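Think of the structure tokens as a kind of shorthand, similar to the way a musician reads notation: each symbol stands for something richer, in this case the local conformation of the backbone. In the example below we present two proteins back to back. Begin with the first one, reading the sequence and then the tokens, and try to describe in your own words what changes along the chain.
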Amino acid sequence: MTSRSTRQQQTDAANARDGSTPDFDVLIIGAGISGIGAACHLKARRPGTTFAILEGRDSIGGTWSLFRYPGIRSDSDMPSFGFNFKPWTHRKSIADADIILGYLQETVDENDLTDHIRFGYRVVGAEFSTTDGRWTITTRHADTGDTTLFTARFLFMGTGYYDYDAGYTPEFTGVEDFAGQVVHPQHWPEDLDHTGKRVVVIGSGATAVTLVPSMADTAGHVTMLQRSPSYVLSLPAEDAIANTLNRLIGPDRAYRIVRRKNIMLNRGIFKACMRAPKLMRRLLIANVRRQLPKHYDVDTHFTPRYDPWDQRLCMVPNGDLFTSLSSGRASVVTDRIAHFTKTGIALESGQELAADIIVTATGLNLAPLGKVDFAVDGRPVSVPDTTVFKSMMLSGVPNMAFAIGYTNIAWTLKVDLVCEHFCRLLDHMDTHGHDVVVPEIDDPDQDRIPLLDMSSGYVQRAIAMFPKAGTSGPWTVAQAYEQDAERLCDGPVTDPALRFTSTTPALQST
């Protein structure tokens, strides 16, 4: 933790002893991509707005600093995953975590955000007072356990949707009998040495297809053990068009062109999967066949039972997974686990996989809005009972916005749109003298549906805890960038479902 952050904590503690509470126009929760993006938009669009970022951990980056497993990288192209205001200039389009962290640190430095970030403050509760028009935020310090209060006019939740406390691991019979080491990617030991070891990676998602080729270079052998296959799409690690344009016309102009190209390409692939799933299924599987040996059993190991984009596609740069499989350094086994043994894993087929290290790439846990307990005027907010307004606010919850990115295209595209609309909303309120804004359900009979429409296990396990989406008007949540751009950037701020009020009554003329 930086000394500057320590000084901020000392100042906050002194204020608490004096009975004063740090107060801001906006409190941003989380110093990951969403929180950093929100801060940059506020700085650029509303230079007079006071704000702070509260981060429960001791570093920026969110997911990209939390996960430390080998090979961790983006599963979206970086020109569209990067911010709309900061060009991505690195040659790699599918980038490793350390490159992404460098990009985020540059963003913090270039926008002078360091003084605005308070590390070690985990937000546990937030209560809004309609009378005062302000939030009171309760934090618990990660190291000392001390409680510190902050107040703010607005909350911006940039906490994403991952539970940072623990990943998901099913109960495996006999795991205690295994003599080797069992590791979850979310809790990767810094001193884990897999050189020459037999490694079994349980899982078939983005984490597993990243780990296998990364570990295969030095491990004795890596086996990806999956219960069922996922769709795997090979993409170039470098975008030749982007790199050429960066050199010829400069990063600023090139970025706009490449970003538009990539958005159109990614949206085109997704729409094709929705409209012609059988055709896209054949094309995706044919792409896999071309990159594996002629007699490889693609039908068993790379032919999913579901349609494309019912779950996320797994992206592999330069087909590195297929290269590892073709070389014999890695293999795929599709089977079910019967139980762990002392030396590995016994499968239902009767086969046993010997292992020195078992990696449970079995998924993540989701948590809505950073697991913060919200209340309005003393009444607890039941998050699952709320409905999402314009993909960024909650019914019945005043002066709060949140950013949850896309599941079918780059996360940050949604963050930029939400942040732009958030700044427009603040401008409107200032112009018209409003202190409080709250979305109110205008059609109580409309159906409510899950916020995320994906069959992935990590979504289905937790989706009941999240707010719901509506089925009409501003309550819909479409995973569609072009629709959100029209609604959040070009559409009006005002809406019949938004109620604006002032805590200070207007002076009456006499």
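Once you have a description of the first chain, move to the second and do the same.
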Amino acid sequence: MSATAGGFQSGPQSARLLGLGGASTAYTRDIAVMYYNPGAIGHLDSLIHVSVGGMGTARLSSFVGTDSRRQTRQELEPQPSGYLYAAARVAPKVSIGLSVNQPFGYKTTWPSDWEGRSVVQESRLSTVYVQPTVAYQINDNFSVGAGFIYAYGDLQQQRALGQYDDRSAQARFEGSGRGYGANIGLYGRTADDLSFGISYRTPVTLKVDNGQAAYSGVLERDAALYPASMGFRTDIELPSTLSVGLADRMTKNLLVTFDFNLTSWSRYDSLNFEMDNATRVTAGRRYEDAMAFRVGAEYTATPILTVRAGVSYDETPVRDEYINADLPDANLLGGSLGLTLAIKPNLLLDMGYSYSQGGERRARVNISRDVVSSIDGSYRTAVHTAAVGLSYSFGGRATRAGQ
């Protein structure tokens, strides 16, 4: 139930890969590798693969004000998430597939009367990526793949208008947008026990042209500046990701995976709402590019049971001077567990769970940086992720829990 990476990358993208800590670029035992490395589906064993599942997201943050010394906890509102993958070998060397998942998103809800209510009361972003994919197996050791990305996202924000004593004075912004991108990858193996993967997912810009702003509780003299309803437009910049991965079968039953990810969060410089009355509502972000390191292990205990564990470290892209209650992110150190049960030889039940803990982040108000909405205080964040899924394969060799 939570974000599995720095910034607002979300999950789960796969119950099985969640148990590995997300180290999946060179992992070909799950069709969800299509999202992480489209080249890898060229080496899937069976003719047909289908995987479906999900659960949700919950990020738990608390805030202690510098002056008030009062602690406020985020309200617990999990954000549902799901995924669907399907692939088939249509020729001896050609495979095609389709993935539908939710790679970016967050949901932040603070009490309506908390001391930072003029910064944010509620904020939510959800996205859906639809990726048709084709892969070509060059030879027994190498395959390449590419996918086209159609992205849809919707945004919602609500905050109090702090210039008024009336706490019912509020601003609410809602909108949705679409964007396009691509995903390319290479999978290779140097021996039966060692494989590698390299992939690049391009950035995506969600263009929100139909946004609606609504103001309530505004004094009559300010009605022209804050009308009851007004349109706006904005662009939401989603980052690219470069991934490099290794997978090593260390023994007959033990597989170890490693991933390195570099995400171009620096694209997310600000969030600007261009209002219909020619005004602009600006929120500075100034994110930085961030790295992530992931290690996972998978052990085939019996023909029907496979267990997994993983660790991860995700850098936060949020600079110290831009910490805010919208997404009080931090460097995250996480651990994960998972298992697969073979209900039938070709029907698998996957389960995964991860927990990540962030360090304390201190926010300070700087009046010279007026595009940053924040209040003085300290944030702490913990993240939980859980997922359940089913995987089905047909054709090729029989599939066990560890294959």
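Compare your description with these statements about the second chain. The chain has two helices and 21 strands.
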